[in-house]
Design brief:
Strand order of the largest sheet: 1-2-3
Number of strands: 3
Helix content: 55-70%
CATH class of the largest domain: Mainly Alpha
Keywords: Membrane, Transmembrane, Transmembrane helix, Transport
Radius of gyration: 24 Å
CATH topology of the largest domain: Alpha-lytic protease prodomain-like
Oligomer: single chain
Largest sheet: 3 strands, mixed
Organism: Eubacterium ventriosum
Distance between the termini: 36 Å
Family: Belongs to the cation diffusion facilitator (CDF) transporter (TC 2.A.4) family.
Subcellular location: Membrane
Membrane topology: Multi-pass membrane protein
CATH architecture of the largest domain: Up-down Bundle
Shape: elongated
Number of helices: 8
Length: 297
């Protein structure tokens, strides 16, 4: 187990969990006090994020255990599965929030105290920025899939609270204007816009983690990057690349390099050196990497 990585990830997740618990409590209470659908949208999203973050704490120590014959992929696929479940649930929550707010709009909308919501959201935005900067600083040397998903959600909170603040500032200016009849529709409209903003990432992550669970090869950009390194490292030896088999699941990456000998001679020590070179060149680009050199028959 890489103790430094484990300690970093554990510290970040604990801090993120503490922040999420605090903010979720405030958001749920504020949504009832302020009577705002937008605040409730944010609060429900964070509540489900909190519930789905808890299993990660149980999983993290197992992700640093070595692979074995019984578990050839370790626990990395469980990580992909948990992240997949997390984003599926969040996507369902977001779609449900959109449909609920459309219903409110169709029934004439409702009015909230824009000043109170503005003060609350602006204060929350500042707190989210501080939390994001702290987590981003702690993850500067190491950022796993779980950490990235948490950083993304804090980034979402920053953008959503900032957008909500601007929207309700606009409502204040509309109070004595000729188009003040649209005010009852602002809160639910903003809630729908925030929810639509949240839709993209869950869809992207669902597709990505589904591919990892069924052991599809990674994106073409990653394949090209690995292929370039492999070709460079084997060019100094009497071998040529025949086939590249890359599997990513969770934070682990397996690379099987099938090579052909140019003179029908295979040297084990050459394979060992090529393996070391490839691993060294890619170790900073992937979290946990395993490289095997295989003779193509």
């Amino acid at each position: 187990m890489d103790q430094q990585k484990y300690k970093t990830e554990n510290k970040i997740l604990r801090l993120s969990l503490g922040g999420t618990i605090t903010f979720t409590i405030f958001e749920i209470i504020a949504s009832f006090v302020l009577g705002s659908k937008t605040v409730m949208t944010d609060g429900i999203f964070d509540l489900f994020d909190l519930l789905l973050l808890l299993p990660m704490f149980i999983l993290v120590p197992f992700l640093y255990k070595p692979v074995s014959e019984k578990k050839p992929y370790g626990f990395s696929q469980i990580e992909s599965l948990l992240v997949l479940v997390k984003y599926i649930v969040l996507l369902i929550v977001v779609i449900n929030m959109i449909t609920n707010n459309i219903t409110v709009l169709l029934h004439g909308g409702h009015t909230v105290n824009a000043t109170n919501v503005l003060i609350y959201e602006a204060s929350l935005c500042v707190c989210c920025i501080i939390m994001y900067l702290v987590l981003h600083y702690l993850s500067r040397n190491y950022s796993s899939m779980i950490i990235k998903s948490e950083l993304y959600l804090w980034k979402v909170d920053i953008v959503s609270t900032l957008g909500i603040s601007v929207a309700f500032l606009f409502q204040i200016f509309l109070t004595h204007s000729p188009i003040n009849f649209i005010i009852p529709y602002i809160d639910s409209s903003v809630a729908i816009i925030v929810a639509l903003f949240l839709v993209k990432e869950p869809i992207v992550q669902i597709i990505k983690n589904l591919k990892e669970l069924v052991l599809f090869s990674p994106d073409q950009q990653i394949m090209d990057e690995i292929r370039e390194v492999v070709n460079k490292d084997i060019s100094n030896y009497e071998y040529s690349l025949d086939f590249l088999d890359v599997t990513q699941t969770g934070r682990k990456t397996w690379i099987e390099v099938y090579v052909k000998s140019k003179n029908d001679t295979i040297k084990i020590k050459d394979f060992k050196k090529i393996q070391e070179h490839i691993t060294k060149d890619l170790i900073d680009k992937f979290d946990q990497i395993y490289v095997e050199i295989v003779p193509a028959l």
